[in-house]
Specification:
The chain has 399 residues and is α/β, with parallel strands linked by helices. The protein is built from 16 helices and ten strands. Strands 1, 2, 3, 4, 5, 6, 7, 8, 9 and 10 form a ten-stranded mixed sheet that branches.
Amino acid sequence: MFEPDPCIAANDSTALVDHVDHVDHVHHVDRGTLVAHVAHVAHVAHVARVDREARVALAPVAARLPPSRRTAWRRLAVAAAGCALFTTLGSKTATAQEPFPQRPIRMLVGFAPGGPTDVVARAVAARMSPILGQSIVVENRPGASTTIATSELVRSKPDGYTIYFTGSAALTITPLSIPGLPFDVAKDVEPIALVAAEHLAIGVHPSVPAKSLKELAALVKDNPGKYKFASSGTGNIGHLTGELFNLQAGNLDMPHIPYKGANPALLDVLAGHVQVIASGIGTMYQHHQQGKLRVLAVTDKKRSSIATEVPTSAEAGFPDLVTTSLFVILVPTGTPQPVIAALHDAVRRSMADESLLKDLRAATVEPIVDSTPESSRRFIHDELRKWAELVKTTGIKLN
């Protein structure tokens, strides 16, 4: 005798009726099996209209019952429709968890094309794409100190089809510098992985006579307000680096000029419109080698592997001037864990690609090959706390 489990979906009502024809006496079938029959047909009717569609679908089977059983059948129809609804909802859940991705992915970048964040983002996206089996389209959303891009990420549907590639300062320093932001990085974003670290540096136009950080400090002190420093935007790591230098050199009067990315900032410094720049060493180094720019120091505890001749800030007389930018990939909070896992796996496998590591080092950033969502989350939390305490204790103004 036909004894399926309740809530199993059937292909169609005709198949059920044909099967019932093989049962000698339908009205003798036990109640549980009748529920199973009804669940089959109600599922096919999509249970959207239980009182109408399900009963219509059940009519061929009900006709085989004696009148004394038809009232009971209708009651079973209503009860089993709920069972079938559960099946339908489960089917929708399964569909929602279908293999990711099924279409191209957007990668937001909060800086202009050509800068270090954009260059690294495109290199990583190019390796992740074949692993995921879908294209990753980089979309630049510069301006407002990356808050335009961050806001767009937070507003996007948390399904993994919009991801965000940015520097860690966008999540740690920027929120401290711009009050009233429409997002809370502690609650609204989820990290996938950290992928690289960039050394920061301070450089000057060749027309500036300073050959070291101490000489620059003395020059600015003798000419308050004359010299200005550029960065890729208000509240970013370059901005903080310049302000820390001002503070530690004796509260210098060297105003900040923000730009919509590292590349526009660099171009104005190369043209002599602004005399000083605080940015990634990768932004400046080739121009340093060509004599178009003079890098005075990297703001780290150790020398950069791609600029070994450039002293650290500690060697230049400023041991507490230490700033580093890390690149991170993010998704909106609420993104399903299987999607996060798939994206992280693509990053992990990409970071095992020697050609990517070579490209990242050529872009003067240090690859991070062992990052996880959990370690990335801890890093962001710790950085946010560190910079909040620093801004509070030093009184640095970032807006």
